[in-house]
Amino acid sequence: MFRNTVRSLWSHKRRLISTCVAVILGVAFMSGTLVLNSTIGKIFDDLFADLGKGIDAQVRGPELFESQTGGGTQRTLLDDSVTEKVAAVPGVSAAEGSILSEQLTVLDKKGDPMGGNGPPTLVGSWDTDKKLSSYQVASGRAPTAPGEVIIDRAGADKGEFEIGDDVEIITPKGREKLELVGISKFGEADSAGGSIFVGATLPEAQRLSGEPGKLDTVNARAEEGVSPERLVRNLEKANVADNADVVTGKQASEEMASDVKSGFSFFTVILLVFAGVALFVGAFIISNTFGILVAQRTRELALLRAMGASRRQVMLSVLLEAGLIGLFSAVLGFLAGVGLAVGAFELLKSFGLDLPGASLVVKPIVAVQTVIVGLLITAAAAILPAIRATRVPPIAALRDVAVDTSGSSKLRAGLGVALFILGGLLVAPAFGNEPGSDKIRVVGAGLGVLMVAVLVSGPVIARPLARVVGS
């Protein structure tokens, strides 16, 4: 039976090309998305872990709410005096306060706003303690007086700035011109996940943000022999600010990495949607292809039955064909997905998102998952044709042609009508007065149901439609 199955596959190789392509596309989008997610996760986990090594504890205000626009957790600002209180806590070697704002607009040399709908433009204080700072000076120097700023390399490139130029910032009180005295880097990257950072002295950053005397966080370094956990306990016991949230530098870094990675979720969602659509369509292509093959092989299957093959053997033969196609296509799809991940990185860079150089992270579990999905899709899609193959009677070997009765199936016709009605009801809200965004998922599901209805009803309406067109 195995040899006969392989021989049958080879004899219908042209017809099976479309089946393989459908599975390859779906698996490629899936594996590419998983590889992309794993790689981006590792890049930012490593980057922020290195940058947070110098921070043993971080004090921040109590949580107000979680921003729904990608701004992370919003917290109450701290008073300037908290820095001195933190520095006085036993076990603290150094402490420095900082403030960061996303509400200011930085203009490039042509006077156009920088940033846009992508990663944010940040204006904040420059940390003077190098061990506590996330940014380092790449060229020039750090700001030391009012009216001076430093910008990261990505921002300098986008804005076409050079040291000595004026950087114009739009604040709540109007336009401000500041002198560019240096260019910074974020670890080994030109920026933090594609964002633009402009740094000034703490008093200047507070003035530009419209929050004089206020801080977002206070970072602290521990004395030798004091662990981060012990330092956090000391700070909590000292009650340096009302309801203050005190965490280790490692925890703060992990939260920052999570916020940055969530900014890339839109891209992975797009790839997953393509994967879902490709696998969904692929399942119907596979089912249709095997249905046609079973109809074409009626005499062959009948001869197998006449020679003693059981229904179980015939069914396993068809499923084996599907399994071989699924395995072959899944492996090719996985390899294509790795290539897709490489292309996705280049596409992200073309969007202006700065990703530090790193090799792709291809986990063995990703390869296993994609192969399993390919096998399951092909096996599930081939079940109905396989069952239909077991119903071929041995007497059919005496017929000259295959008889396809799918077009006269009352069950198929009834199911098709029911699906059309259900899909129409689900899509109906889209034609109402001012449909809300909450209806998008329902309408999308309705379109999917209508697609299934067309595929199910195809054999039933094909003949009547052909008569109308022919007449």
What can you see in these coordinates?
With 471 residues, the protein is α+β, with helices and mostly antiparallel strands. The protein folds into 3 domains: 2-46 and 264-403, no CATH class; 54-259, no CATH class; 405-471. 54% of the residues lie in helices and 16% in strands. It has helices at residues 2-11, 13-51, 81-87, 153-159, 202-209, 228-238, 249-262, 265-296, 298-306, 311-350, 364-390, 410-427, 440-470; strands at 57-60, 63-66, 73-75, 78-79, 92-98, 100-101, 105-107, 121-125, 136-140, 148-152, 166-171, 174-185, 196-200, 214-215, 217-222, 245-248. The strands form 4 sheets. Strands 6, 7, 8, 9, 10, 11, 12 and 13 form an 8-stranded mixed sheet that branches. It has a 4-stranded antiparallel sheet with strand order 5-15-1-16. Helix 2 runs antiparallel to helix 11 (364-390), helix 8 runs parallel beside helix 11 (364-390) and helix 12 packs across helix 13. It is elongated and about 95 Å long.
Uncertain segments: none
SS elements, strand count: 16
- Please give the radius of gyration in angstroms: 32 Å
Q: What sort of overall outline do the alpha carbons produce when their principal axes are compared?
A: elongated
Order of helices and strands: HHEEEEHEEEEEEHEEEHEEHEHHHHHHH
Distance between the termini: 46 Å
- Tally of separate helices: 13
How is the main sheet built? 8 strands, mixed
What is the average of the pLDDT values?
A: 78
Helix content: 40-55%
Q: Which structural class fits the helix and strand makeup?
A: alpha+beta
Count up the domains: 3
